[in-house]
TrEMBL record:
GO biological process, one term: sodium ion export across plasma membrane
Record key words, sorted: Membrane, Transmembrane, Transmembrane helix
Protein's UniProt name: Sodium/proton antiporter, CPA1 family
Pfam families for the chain: Na_H_Exchanger
Entries under InterPro entries matching the protein: Cation/H_exchanger_TM, Na+/H+_antiporter_fungi
Membrane topology value: Multi-pass membrane protein
Oxidoreductase in keyword set: no
Superkingdom of origin organism: Archaea
Main location: membrane
Transmembrane portions of the chain: 6-25, 37-56, 68-85, 97-119, 125-150, 200-222, 288-304, 310-327, 348-368, 380-404
Length: 430
């Protein structure tokens, strides 16, 4: 009970303080992002600091992080889906296909090759760790594409691209992670058969169909309830959160990919639901997501395997740096001609840099650790995640403002706001 109270006061206090000064952190204090502070809190109160809190006191640390990460990623992909305009995926099918198929496979192969070469591990182990760090994290990406600074400096097409990609590739990383897992568990023939029939056909294909069906049905019911005045504003909170949890849990019970199903369900819900409620549901979803984001990053800080990082030596440092630089940036530059929202090298460099690695990688790393028990997976993956949280957190605000200034967007926004203000004043005077 004592550790529960410590967790409540520290995590609750951090959430309260960061919620009150979120604008200050994003606009003035560049080096301290919210995820960085949450991880630091975990380090301070954990065995590396004051030794006040231990995940092991509540059960297996990897199981706790896996389930907490699954819920957080589910909320994040749902928030990303609700953030997108209606029919976004259909209207930008070529762009999404480019970043999610060849782009994502390229990121996987590059990351896997870096692990294979730098850590001198078997090929499939390298590809497993590479797959774990492949998906763009929707939680960290959400902190970049939302807020006043993002609205002022990042064009809407780029924000939508990052939201859509981060939401979709978290679920689509599932087959990339499980191909190496199956190859390490079974002979190649059986592993490939299981991957094609079970992982691709059922766990991915069925997730899309089930998620789309549930999302469309829920959206239609929500629209009808609104038209017949059955839905109250106070029930929006329970609807959007319960919807996410129901999809995650129900699809997982069927043995399919709950995270991908949650994203698809959110897209279809967004398309069929009453448009006037979408903004409210998006705000509610992101508020609830904030309540889950801080605890999982604190848990991550509690579980940092610093001794194992030191054992990796310079190879670990080189791995983290090379993955951040080479995993995603070259893919966006190469495939930018097929991605409509990207207009020129500046957009490609910005979108290519901000593909953070976070809670989705924590989830897949803990899954791989549970299934295979490989000791190297968690130290290598967690080192890359910690590096991404630090580097992308520190660069988010200054790079966003630099991008806005170089593209002229900040000046355009100020002129537009000035024009609106003048028009409003003239109207008032008249």
């Amino acid at each position: 009970m004592q550790e529960l109270n410590i967790a409540l006061v520290t995590i609750g206090g951090l959430t309260l303080v960061l919620s009150l000064i979120a604008g200050l952190l994003r606009n003035r204090v560049y080096v301290l992002s919210e995820p960085i502070l949450a991880v630091l809190l975990g380090v301070v109160i954990g065995s590396l600091g004051l030794d006040l809190l231990h995940l092991a006191a509540w059960g297996d640390p990897f199981t706790i992080m896996e389930q907490f990460a699954r819920l957080t990623v589910g909320l994040a992909v749902m928030a990303a889906a609700l953030r997108l305009p209606q029919r976004y995926v259909r209207e930008h099918a070529r762009a999404m296909a480019a970043v999610l198929v060849p782009g994502m496979i390229g990121m996987w192969l590059v990351s896997g090759a870096l692990v294979y070469v730098l850590l001198d591990v078997p090929l499939w182990v390298g590809l497993l760790i590479g797959a774990i760090v492949t998906p763009t994290d929707p939680v960290l990406a959400g902190t970049i594409v939302t807020g006043s600074a993002a609205e002022q400096h990042i064009p809407m097409p780029i924000r939508n691209l990052l939201s859509g990609e981060s939401g979709a590739n978290d679920g689509l990383a599932y087959p990339l992670v499980f191909l190496p897992i199956l190859m390490l568990q079974h002979p190649p023939g059986r592993a490939l058969t299981d991957w094609l029939l079970s992982t691709l056909l059922w766990e991915v294909g069925a997730a899309v169909v089930i998620g789309a069906t549930i999302g469309a049905a829920a959206g239609w019911v929500e629209r009808e309830s609104k038209e017949h005045h059955f839905l109250e504003e106070t029930s929006l909170l329970s609807v959007t959160v319960a919807f996410t949890f129901a999809v995650l849990g129900g699809v997982k019970l069927l043995g399919s990919d709950g995270i991908l199903a949650a994203f698809v369900a959110g897209l279809l819900f967004n398309q069929f639901a009453d448009a006037t409620d979408e903004a409210d549901e998006q705000k509610i979803q992101e508020t609830v997501l904030r309540l889950f984001t801080f605890p999982i990053f604190v848990c991550f800080g509690l579980a940092l395997p610093v001794a194992e990082w030191i054992a990796l030596g310079w190879a670990g440092v080189a791995l983290a740096a090379s993955v951040l630089l080479l995993r995603r940036l070259p893919m966006l530059v190469v495939f930018r001609r097929f991605v409509d929202p990207i207009d020129g090298a500046r957009d490609a460099l910005f979108a290519g840099w901000f593909g953070p690695i976070g809670i989705a990688a924590i989830f897949y790393a803990t899954v791989a650790h549970r299934v295979l028990g490989l000791e190297l997976v968690w130290p290598a993956a967690s080192l890359v995640v910690a590096s991404s949280v630090l580097v992308h957190g520190v660069t988010a605000t200054p790079f966003t403002k630099l991008y806005g200034r170089r593209s002229g967007r900040a000046r355009t926004q100020r002129q537009s706001q000035s024009t609106e203000s003048d028009a409003s004043s003239s109207f008032s005077d008249g």
